[in-house]
Design a protein that fits this description.
With 304 residues, the chain is of the alpha+beta class. The protein has 3 domains: 83 residues, Uridine Diphospho-n-acetylenolpyruvylglucosamine Reductase, domain 2, CATH 3.30.43.10; 123 residues, Uridine Diphospho-n-acetylenolpyruvylglucosamine Reductase, domain 3, CATH 3.30.465; 83 residues, UDP-N-acetylenolpyruvoylglucosamine reductase, C-terminal domain (Uridine Diphospho-n-acetylenolpyruvylglucosamine Reductase, domain 1). The chain is 28% helix and 26% strand. The protein contains 7 helices and 19 strands. The protein has a 5-stranded antiparallel beta sheet. The two termini are 18 Å apart.
């Protein structure tokens, strides 16, 4: 990959302003861990996004999309290719009665507050989820009994051929922490959500309850990437991790949280290797003691 050729191509397309080279990714993730990306892009609009995707395809450069960098571990060696961040130019929010069109870069926590101001119910569960809409849909993010599948009506996304497509909820096959867009070469642009008319005081009370539960049970004020593992059928991952004696286990500056065993926190300058060691140690012990193969909820990105 010739970076000078890519720079020249970006200059021709008029998108140099949105491209960074050798960009450290630790500042773009909630864990504050990770090496540099060869190319990092924050497009202002769909046309700029199409241009950068076209360049990546023409030069066989793989690309990945991140939002707020939650549920994500970037390896210390970094990412060979292009990382696209939609936080900048994809923050549209448009209300029409109970229907809201939301850009992929909108923070779920912020969206929950806006819905409260409109006296609309349905997003109370999202009040303390740190991710953005795009990733939340891909992973069907949720809290307790509610999730994105409850409110999503349709999703608009860019496919590999730089074509824009739309899929309805019935075609997304939402499941526990995933939908059928996960793992595909698509970039979510926006979604239409259907909320319900509600009472402001009741909505606000539910939000406060959810925040209190999270603050009590999760290490929200420590650097973390959210839940490391999905809950296996019939079990809670955190309980399994605790039962095999790994709660509080540390490696370097990474530690399995004493507050919630399904969280790994960065106590300073933890490396991706520190975190991976703890993840693999948990997996080995749970498999040995319970015969259960834990499925990772955290995404791992970078050069091995």
């Amino acid at each position: 990959m010739n970076i000078d050729i890519i720079k020249n191509e970006c200059n021709k397309q008029g998108i140099n302003r949105i491209i960074k080279y050798n960009e450290p990714l630790k500042s773009h993730t909630s864990l504050r861990i990770g090496g540099p990306a060869d190319f990092f892009c924050c497009p202002d609009n769909i046309e700029d996004l199409k241009k950068v995707v076209s360049i990546s395809q023409e030069h066989n450069i793989p690309f990945w999309v991140i939002g707020n960098g939650t549920n994500l571990l970037i390896l210390d060696s970094g990412v060979r290719g292009l990382v696209i961040n939609l936080n900048k130019g994809f923050k549209k929010i448009e209300f029409s009665d109970k229907i809201v069109k939301v850009g992929a870069g909108v923070s779920l926590a912020y969206l929950s507050k806006i819905a409260l101001n409109k006296e609309l119910s349905g997003l109370e569960f999202a009040c303390n989820i740190p991710g953005t809409l795009g990733g939340a849909i891909i992973n069907n993010a949720g809290f307790r009994e509610n999730c994105m599948a409850d409110v999503v009506q349709n999703v608009t996304f860019l496919i590999g051929e730089n074509k824009i497509e739309k899929a309805s909820k019935s075609n997304l096959n939402f499941n526990y922490r995933e939908c059928n867009l996960k793992g595909k070469s698509v970039i979510i642009l926006e979604a239409t959500l259907l909320l319900k008319k509600g009472n402001r005081e009741e909505i606000e009370l539910k939000i406060k309850e959810n925040i209190k539960i999270r603050e009590t049970k999760q290490p929200l004020h420590k650097l973390n990437a959210g839940s490391i593992f999905k809950n296996p059928p019939g079990y809670y991952a955190g309980e399994l991790v605790e039962k095999v004696g790994t709660k509080g286990l540390s490696r370097g500056k990474a530690e399995i949280s004493l507050k919630h065993a399904n969280f790994i926190i960065n106590n300073g300058d933890a490396s991706s290797g520190d975190v991976l060691y703890l993840i693999e140690e948990i997996e080995k012990r749970v498999k040995k003691n319970f015969g259960i193969k834990l499925e990772r909820e955290i995404e791992i990105l970078g050069e091995p």
